[in-house]
Amino acid sequence: MTTDPQQSVRVEAVKSLGVWGTRDDVPTLIRALDHEDGATRRTAALAVRRFRDDRAVPALVRRLGDPQCTGESAKALIDIGPAAERPVIPALASTDVTEQGAAIDVLKEIGTVDSVPALQKVVSGKSFWSTKAVEALKLIRARAKKKN
Fold first, then answer.
1. Structural domains of the chain, ranges and CATH numbers in brackets
2. Which DSSP symbol is given to 114?
3. Pfam families attached here (predicted)?
4. pLDDT in tens, 2-39
5. pTM score
6. 87 vs 140: CA distance, rounded Å
7. 26 vs 8, 14, 114, 129, CA distance in Å?
8. Could you give the CA distance from residue 74 to residue 105 in angstroms, rounded to a whole number?
């Protein structure tokens, strides 16, 4: 049903997996993240968030620049936590401002010192998101300081 040609059926099936599914359903949700229909992708990003499963990281990272599900993908990556950090870092170099901004949002929450060099490049590159990157750097450094 998650591949049904009718959008409403497909979206409801994906939504149902997010509510009643198990970790065994995560691969199906990952496939739905790559569906051509934006509503299906958005619903899949919302659904997969519940599982906090790092198998979804690559598909979620691909969706950071997708206007249909940027925010949902970023939130799911934040919920997954440290396993998402390294795969998100390359998105900081994106020329897509939506993708780059979402990557900064994710790293602001889960980033460690490993994210610092890439965030510094965003700042020095005069990105649209330079101010947001500076804020992320401050939070990452504060977390690192607290940890030590």
1. 7-147 (1.25.10.10)
2. G
3. HEAT_2 (PF13646)
4. 887 899 999 999 999 999 999 999 999 999 999 999 99
5. 0.94
6. 17
7. 20, 10, 28, 32
8. 7
